[in-house]
Amino acid sequence: MNYGICNLSVIPLRAEANDRSELVSQVLYGELFKVLEIRAKWSRIRLAFDSYEGWVDNKQFLTISEEEYTNLISESPTMSSDLVDFITTSNNQLLSICMGSHVQAAAFMKHSFEGKLLSRTFPKKHIIDTALLYLNAPYLWGGKTPFGIDCSGFTQMVYKLNGHKLRRDASQQATQGEPLSFIEESEAGDLAFFDNVDGDIIHVGIIMEDNYIIHAHGKVRIDRLDHTGIFNYEARAHTHQLRVIKRIIE
Length: 250
Hints:
By secondary structure, this protein is mainly beta. The protein has 4 helices and 21 strands. The strands form 6 sheets. It has a 6-stranded antiparallel β-barrel with strand order 16-17-18-19-20-21. A 5-stranded antiparallel beta sheet has the order 6-5-4-1-7. The chain has a 3-stranded antiparallel beta sheet with strand order 10-9-11, with no helix packed on it. Strand 5 (42-47) and strand 6 form a beta hairpin. Helix 2 (127-133) packs across helix 3. The termini are far apart.
């Protein structure tokens, strides 16, 4: 088995070994992964955090040993907390990073980081404060950063920054937590999931107080939530059909 670490700001994780292939997720600075298959220009990887798989360009990550991987994975996660910050490389160059980057790995790569850190688990009430930091971030299929993020990337990153683990896709996240019977039972920080006409989970958002929801749809935005789904005042219509509400954090 081979192992790797992301030594750049953010790299694309693709469905196939091709630059034109679908972006399925992103790998942020300091994230660790196992390398499952190596080709001339591409490698198929499995991320340590959520076991998500995809293809990355061999030029965009650093190969590490099993011992180094084991040592790094045993460290408590420490993440950058500002929307944008900087890493100083060993040759005194600046590398921009975004919120949620794994800066505990900086010393291993002979980099230095002097910004604000997140390294503990926060209570549920902190979820909405974190979610609001992404407000107006543009929607990007497969995105995980304030400069482009999809619905499940948004919920995953918000929970991750608060010390809680969600899987990557909305359909996967819908298998976590405890279901609630009614919206009235929900609390700020719970997740609402939405399906299509075929019954497939295709969207997720974070419930706020007073029947509002924050979610990534065109951009990270706040809309109304009712028993039917998400009501968009700009469109004057329901845009998503409610399927289930899940409580991940008590």
